[in-house]
UniProtKB/TrEMBL annotation:
Topological category with respect to the lipid bilayer: Multi-pass membrane protein
Organism: Alteraurantiacibacter lauratis
TM spans (from-to): 9-29, 49-69, 76-96, 102-123, 135-161, 167-186, 221-244, 256-276, 288-306, 312-337, 349-372, 384-405
UniProt keyword Transmembrane present: yes
Domain of life: Bacteria
Record keyword NAD present: no
Name this protein carries in UniProt: Spinster family MFS transporter
Amino acid sequence: MEWRRNSPWFALIVLAMISTVGFIDRIVVNVLVEPIKNEFGLTDRQVSLMGVAFTVLNIGVGLVVARAAERVRRLSLIPIGTVLWSAATGLCGWAGSWVQLLVARMGVGLGEAIGLPSLQSVISDYFPPQKRGTAISVLMLAPALGALIGFMGGGWIAQTYGWRETFLIAAVPGVVLGIVAWLMVAEPRRGAHDAMANSDDVPPVSAVLARLFALPSARQLVIGSAFAAMLGFGLNYFFTSLMIRQFNVGLAEAGLYAGLIASAPSAISVMVQGMLGDRLGAKNPAAYALVPAVCLLLGGPLYALAITRAELGPLLVLVSIATFLNFGYLGITFAALQNLMHPRMRATCSAVLNVVYGVASAAGPFLLGWLSDHLAPTYGAGRGLVLAMAITGALYFWAGVHYLLAARRYGADLASTRSAG
């Protein structure tokens, strides 16, 4: 048992599974948009408020918890948060009104604010800097795997049993994994692989913000990744709706397509870009920004072309390729930013980024829903959503430009933070 408790790869697998469950509980609402919209009589803009409800408590509480995580045992916070958000997911299935469902989604956001900010900090203490690109990319497989399970499993369960039962079933794995993490994953020593870990003092939030937003490369990485995240959350939120409205497929079939496209290409891309970053970054640290830059610059225009195809087959193939290019930035970006942080800044860094990405996750679906509603009177509900998604997808190019700017300064910024300690 003891070797397992201190095994970096065992810890990584368990925490990656917890992160995956968190993403399932976050994303499963995407496949339930149509049945929830129909039951409560909502517009696209209104139903997108489930993302806003999730964010309300998530971004504020996450930062407070992260500051505590710099001082206390992180492997206590992670299991508590996991069980809490899983219970709140179950409560979504018992919601008797639209308002009750929004309140339950706020509970999911609260639990994730407690359980998730420490994950990257723990993994960064288990793995040395030259392996963090790969390790954190494994951790960041969670969105891809969560999308696969959430879309495919959620779509099938919702069509077979109902949307309420989908929430109830999704709540179970988190409770189990929370107990496993509590009993079987050891708390690693902070800064075990970092020469700059020469003090137990916790730097102030201002120092974390300075590294994230004053360092030119970090600032560009945050802006670029936040923009890409906003686009991705919006496109994933309405992809099943597009399948149903434009191609008249069933809920389970739409969930199958959405799950496969959002999971397999992005999972492969996250690992490929993370490993490329570690390999190329050994000689040129700028690779941690340059690799995702090239992919995003190509992926944005391709997505706009793909989503406007009139036939389902070509659309799915081209969207899969665009997804491979547009979602691989996740792991390599987090690794690049964690390497810029002092060991006792990392949980706070994750929480600050969670605030940024939380706003992005709420804004993406809302803005895309607003654009779809705006275009629907002229083009119809189906074609209006297609055009809204095409415009949104094309903007990945903009995110790629920010990564190019980050690549110009990343090497110098990394050297300066390491010398400063």
